[in-house]
Amino acid sequence: MHEFSANTFKRCTCKHPETGQQLGAKCQKLKRRNGSWRSDHGTWYFQAELPRRSDRTRRTRRRGGYATQTDAQTVLDKMAALVEAAQPHGDTAVVAIGDLIDTCLKSGKSFPTAESITQELESGDTPNLVPTVGEWLHTWLASRKKLRGSTRLSYHQHMRLWLIPHLGHYRIDALTVEHVAAMFDAMAERNDFITAAKASDDPDIRKTVHGLRIISAATMQRYRATLRAALNAAIRDPKIPLRFNPASHIELPSGRRPKALLWTPERVERWQRTGERPSRVMVWTPEQTGTFLDHAEGHPHYVLLHLIAYRGLRRGEACGLPWWDIDLANQSATITSALVQIGWEIEFGEPKSEASGRVIALDNDSVHALRAQKQHQADLRDAAGDRWVEHGLVCTESDGSPLHPAKLTDSFQAIAEEAGLPPVRLHDLRHGAATLMLAAGADLKEVQELLGHSSIAITADTYTHVLPELARESAEAAASLVPRQTRRKLPPPPHSGASGA
């Protein structure tokens, strides 16, 4: 909270007989012998600590020439009353009042009354009241009525962890590129500290960063996107004097999504030997996907894992898939909703984007899995009796309540580990559906529509590395189908160590 503090003092212009410096408040003529102030020598001054500027810098103001202490104190009382009137309306109002007091002191104009300021603030008719970045972020987020719950949570975390602590105190029209750049520099310094601490030989130092994660380039890009969106909204607001978005002029690492790589035998062997994954996004081959599904068959969540692997559903789309969006006769499913995890809470929402709402063709295996699930669910309903809570979902808990998405992730990881497969995320199982389509000869546009990507560029960026590897495997598979009575013996490759003829 901005505070107002002040004091009065008396001084004169008498000078020291030897040094020539003014004695100021030290002049012995200012007081009588009994310690009371003399009225015929010196004048009164005040020193006031005005509310800090929007950039948190202090502003100390001194004024003098008052005949009596009462005159100086009267001015201070007017200033204090203005600050007190603004305090119930937040930091922005207090900063604005500090600006007003400063302007009046510099120009010599009289102060407005505290009553008029109170009336103006309560009426909301304050066109010159510019919010701080922190206040505007809260206003902007509250105005975004149609955000998905997970997106709202992400914006809130960005604001709480970095945007408001580092930028929230600046008045929004005073925010500069340098201010924003300093926040990202602080992120980079934090990363350097964590990296150095984890590499330390001292266990106590390593313990200080236990559980802390590096802020990736992609995460920094998301922070900038949040700030940029909020500031763009401020630019469109005619009441806010902001015409420049400093977040748009910050240079950051690209944060491009990692390329998907296939778990080829060579990469599997290296992972088994070193424990290292070649990329954050790894994709199983069709054979590895088949191994996983063989191990998953019979599991209570099998139908959802099958649909993710075959038809590329997102986790939330699978957990929130209702029976009324499935047409088994025409072998299709319509994606209209998702069960989204927000923190640990879950709620039903719309698909991730407009492109995510889509109709998916169902293959015969998927239709068979869904029919089996329908029968299994009928058995669960009979066993639960009165405890059954009908939600109409394809896969639920044993009492019909929605399946928490995190439980599906746990099931996936346990089955994959049991099958001895190289590690992928549940989301990468969705990539496996794209891999199956690419192996079958589908083009990227078909894969984009299956996965519900908003742009084919996303599909191309993700699968650029997978397609050539699949093409080579397909070429070998096709060549092996050609019957040959003899195979031409190829010469040994160069530098193989084989002796010449």
From TrEMBL:
Keyword field: DNA integration, DNA recombination, DNA-binding
Matching CDD domains: INT_ICEBs1_C_like
Domain Tyr recombinase, first and last residues per copy: 279-476
GO molecular-function term, one example from the UniProt record: DNA binding
Record's keyword annotation contains DNA-binding: yes
A GO biological-process term: DNA integration
Pfam families assigned: Phage_int_SAM_3, Phage_integrase
Region (Disordered): 477-501
InterPro entries: CB, DNA_brk_join_enz, Integrase-like_cat_sf, Integrase_catalytic, Integrase_recombinase_N, Integrase_SAM-like_N, Tyrosine_recombinase_XerCD
Positions of the Core-binding (CB) domain: 131-235
PANTHER family for this protein: INTA PROTEIN, PHAGE INTEGRASE-RELATED
Name of the protein this chain belongs to: Site-specific recombinase XerD
Organism: Amycolatopsis japonica
